[in-house]
Amino acid sequence: MKMKFVALAVSAALLTGCNDDTQTVEVIKEVEVAKEIEVVKEVVKEVVKEVPPTPVTSVKNIILMIGDGMGPQQVGLLEEYAQRAPNSVYKSKNNQTALSKFANAGHLGLSLNAPHGPTGSLVTDSACSATQLATGISAGSEMIGLDTQGNKVATILEKAKAMGKATGLVSDTRITHATPAAFASHQPHRSYEDKIAEELISSGNVDVMLSGGARVFLPQDVASNEEVQKQLAELGMPSGVYKKSKRSDNENLVVEAKDQHGYALAFDKTQLMDVEGDKLLGLFANSGMADGIAYKKCQQDNSCTQPSLKEMTIKALDVLSKDEDGFFLMIEGGQIDWAGHANDAGWMLNELLKFDEAVEAVHEWVKDRNDTLVVVTADHETGSFGFSYSNYNTPEAVPLPGDGMGDALYKPKFNFGALSLLDTLYNQEGTFYDIMGDVDGSYNFANSSAEQWQTAITKHTPYTVTLEQAATIHESHETNDDGHPLPHFEDFSDFYVYGTEDFTGKIARVVATQQNVVWGTGTHTAAPVPVYAFGPEGITKQFSTLQHHVDIANKMMAALGVN
Ligand SMILES: [Mg+2]
Ligand SMILES: [Zn+2]
């Protein structure tokens, strides 16, 4: 429209300029022409102003956040809780999650996540999924940083480092666990955590590592070697962090990280706040870090000694953003997945809240910038979780005032779940593992009683179970190699693969009707997972589609200029 107007104005000016009669007329015409030229100039100016700027298609920094096991149903749980729980902790935040801020200000898409390509498979594990997210190529199940043929493949983190950028990995599980490992190590199997630890500290590719998992950094005899214990204590490591080793040699990777590779060390929250330097190794737990429920409780009485996922995120951003060349940072909320495997909805909600706190910290850091791409996604869904309606405790008939009711009472046939159940999930006091630990610390339930299960469930959850229900938990038809009873599932039993740990899935079944919650598996499902992208529009809009995880990696690498 504007262009047409310019053309008309110009031709009008030319026509007027051609008219020549008397001098007076000439002068009047000249004045008019001059006026019209001014108009044309103004219009041209406006048109020039309206030409859109070249879209930004590259960024200096990338922050990738992975909610392990955070499928669409898990995001739904978090959003329902935030928006509609009667006592939602988000009330003071307009009932708005940090995730939803990225959705509103950025782009939201979906991503298929199975092992990619014609030789792939249907369902992924975290190692394969993280490898595909880190490399953009097809990867094999349970492999770390390798292609399907076992070749090492450079990851986005390694490519960023090669460009001179700073790099970081943050997780609330173990730094050697599959998700962080796949960004900076290359191993035939995710279980090689001792080798992964060696690679992480010696490769020189990761500047900041903050997580748990000290046990694979410590010499095999750490539990009995007082000299080593003294050395670690002098470095500031609490005894709970060095209590045992999972190495089969005498290497002390903590000391090596400091002396040979120049890492500053931190082992608790205070040390992390105080530590300085651009290379940082923080190991805050012997194995996994505090779960979401333990974290909620220590926050309430101000007794947390480990840093939270949010605090580790803030520290990593502080350190990495000092690099003028930019950075790549991966942050994982890794225990959403663990709660999903345990079929423990209350724990899972608390993990989602812990993750969303870290998302909030990233949002705060990035919201006014245009040089950073944030991608938040999951590696896969865990547990086949869902709210569901049932015929348990169906609603009473009640009168309604509406003029469409006639003489009828309002009485749905089924129980569609009260919103107060969201608060009940949040208020859970312990995980299903805590319940099992109370009944038997070594998960050997050969001699457990229904009373023990009932007592432990009452202690850690708001749910009441009958002795009859409690007895179904430890009902067992088989034992493992140690002679310990294995949980018995009536159906889908082959999808509960973690032995005695899967008694959690039996607890889930006896509290299910009180939660309006069902689970389909003790492993993962292949549901497409949400992808949130925030940053320059020219980059983020391409995430608003149905893609695959390898595409996410390739889009991130293109944005960083490392294809
Ligand atoms: Mg993980
Ligand atoms: Zn998993």
Write up this protein:
It is a single chain. This protein is α/β, with parallel strands linked by helices and 563 residues long. It contains 22 helices and 16 strands. It has helices at 2-18, 23-50, 72-84, 98-105, 126-135, 156-162, 178-181, 193-202, 226-234, 253-259, 269-274, 292-300, 309-320, 335-341, 345-366, 420-426, 432-439, 450-460, 467-473, 503-515, 537-540, 549-560, and strands at 61-67, 107-112, 166-174, 208-212, 264-266, 280-283, 327-333, 372-377, 381-382, 386-387, 478-479, 485-486, 517-518, 524-525, 529-534, 546-548. Strands 5-6-4-3-7-1-8-15-2-16 form a 10-stranded mixed β-sheet, with helices on both faces. A two-stranded antiparallel ribbon has the order 9-14. Strand 5 (264-266), helix 11 and strand 6 form a beta-alpha-beta unit. The protein is globular. The structure holds magnesium ion and zinc ion. Belongs to the alkaline phosphatase family. This is Alkaline phosphatase. Keywords: Hydrolase, Magnesium, Metal-binding, Phosphoprotein, Zinc. Zn(2+) binds at residues 68, 337, 341, 379-380, 524.
Quick overview:
By secondary structure, the protein is α/β, with parallel strands linked by helices.
**Which stretches of 5+ consecutive residues score pLDDT under 50?**
1-19
Q: Give a quick account of the main beta sheet: strands, pairing sense, barrel closure.
A: 10 strands, mixed
Please identify the top-level CATH class of the largest domain.
Answer: Alpha Beta
Q: Beta-sheet strand percentage?
A: 5-15%
Residue share in helices?
40-55%
| Global mean pLDDT | 94
Distance between the termini: 40 Å
According to CATH, the homologous superfamily of the largest domain is Alkaline Phosphatase, subunit A
CATH architecture of the largest domain: 3-Layer(aba) Sandwich
Q: Gyration radius, to the nearest Å?
A: 29 Å
Tell the overall outline: globular
Ligand inventory: magnesium ion, zinc ion
Organism: Pseudoalteromonas luteoviolacea H33
InterPro entries: Alkaline_phosphatase, Alkaline_phosphatase_AS, Alkaline_phosphatase_core_sf
Protein name: Alkaline phosphatase
Binding site for Mg(2+): 68, 177, 179, 332
